[in-house]
Every structure is written in structure tokens, then in C-alpha cells.
């Protein structure tokens, strides 16, 4: 299986070098999508000549970074894509394990709530509350059985990538992707990954830093995605 591992980054000078060193131990073909970083990220990336870099001239958003990664995997003739974040919250050693689960699915999604790896690790309460609520929407409206709506540690086979159109360039990007996955009948599995929070102060930016605004934004994006897909949602949906 020809596998690409992609990492979207924006101003990740704090974690970039250590994350890349770890990723390169477990992945042969690595892409970093630099979404308009203004810190030392571009300079630090020069120290990793074995890593391919695609740079957005300006910051377009988390979803835009993943859209570029999806396109690179398809254009490069890859059979599969693994994505993970660059904030130290994902364990690169699990890349082979996550990718291997594509033998039974089109889309593998990491879950930080399937298994407790470290009882001392707890998510910020506001983020956990929103994740629980959005995960409920996905399960009730799409007939899924997920435990984590927003984990960025995922794997996709080529069939899945060919189905997706990234319609939200920001942090709500996963919601239309979940809808499209169901729309196209993709096989989805979750796999346990550790819950790691190294920096609880990280912000979403702008209005999204307000949790009420963020949840309402997610609700609107999800509703729009359902309408665009023409899905007849499962009974009891209260998204």
C-alpha cells in the first residue's frame, strides 16, 4: 500500500521538530501543509529535507490544510492517507496501526474516548462538552456509533478521498466529511488513541473562541451539509 502521512500546520514552532522526528520514525512518505505560518515554522521545515512541504501563502484554515493534503494524496497516486496534528496531541508511533485498519474500512478515525490510556489526562471541559454534543448529532442524525467527532488522527483509503469535497475550510471541516462518508456508504471504524492535552490555552481564533458561538457555527455547518447531501436523517435527530 502506497501511504502518505500528512500534517497540517500553522505556527507550530513549539512542537514541529519533535513531532516530525517522531513521525519520520514511523512513516516513509511525509507531507507538511504549512497554512501560512508567520512564526519560525517555515525556517524549521528546512531542516527536514526528506519532508515534502506545500505552503499556503496566507492562513486559510484547518480544513484548507486537509483539503490540500487530500488533493496531494490523490494527485500523487497514493492508496491511502493518514492525517495527524502537529500540536503533540497524537502519537506518531500509532501511524502504522491506524493505517493497517484500512484493511477493514474506508475511513479510520481515532477516538480519544474508546480507551483510557492515562487517567491523569483530561480534556478542557468546554471542548469535551462540545465534542459530546456534536458526536451525538452524528450518531442520531447519521446512524453512526462514534465516540469522538473531532479527532484529527485519521486514515482514508483512495475510495474515501475520491468521495470527499472539503466545503468548510475551518475547524468545522470534519462535519461535512462525516456526512459525505455516510452519503457514499463508506465503511467507518474508530480506533483508540491516547488523550493528550499539552496546551489547554490554544485558541480557535476570532469568534470561534466563544464556545456558544462555536457550537452554533458547527450546528449550521452540519445542517447545511445534510441538506447538500439530500440525506434522509435517522429518526430522533435533534442536531
Describe this structure in words.
With 239 residues, the chain is an alpha/beta fold. The protein has one domain (3-123, 147-201): Spore Coat Polysaccharide Biosynthesis Protein SpsA, Chain A (Alpha-Beta Complex). The protein contains 8 helices and 7 strands, in the order βαβαβαβαβαβααβα. The protein has a 7-stranded mixed sheet, with helices on both faces. α1 links the parallel β1 (3-9) and β2 (30-35). The chain is globular and about 50 Å long. The termini are far apart. The relative contact order is 0.16. The model has no long low-confidence stretch (mean pLDDT 91). It comes from Paludisphaera mucosa. This is Glycosyltransferase family 2 protein. It holds the Pfam family Glycos_transf_2.
Shape: globular
In which order are the strands of the major sheet placed? 3-2-1-4-6-5-7
Number of helices: 8
| Helicity, as a percent range | 25-40%
Fourth CATH level, the homologous superfamily: Spore Coat Polysaccharide Biosynthesis Protein SpsA, Chain A
Question: Roughly how many Å apart are the termini?
Answer: 38 Å
- Provide the residue-averaged pLDDT: 91
Low-confidence runs of at least 5 consecutive residues: none
CATH top level is Alpha Beta
Predict the CATH topology. Answer: Spore Coat Polysaccharide Biosynthesis Protein SpsA, Chain A
Question: Which CATH architecture is right?
Answer: Alpha-Beta Complex
C-alpha Rg (nearest Å):
17 Å
What is the N-to-C succession of helices and strands?
EHEHEHEHEHEHHEH
Instruction: State the domain count.
Output: 1
Structural class by helix and strand composition: alpha/beta
β-strand amount: 15-25%
Biggest sheet overview: 7 strands, mixed
Overall strand count: 7
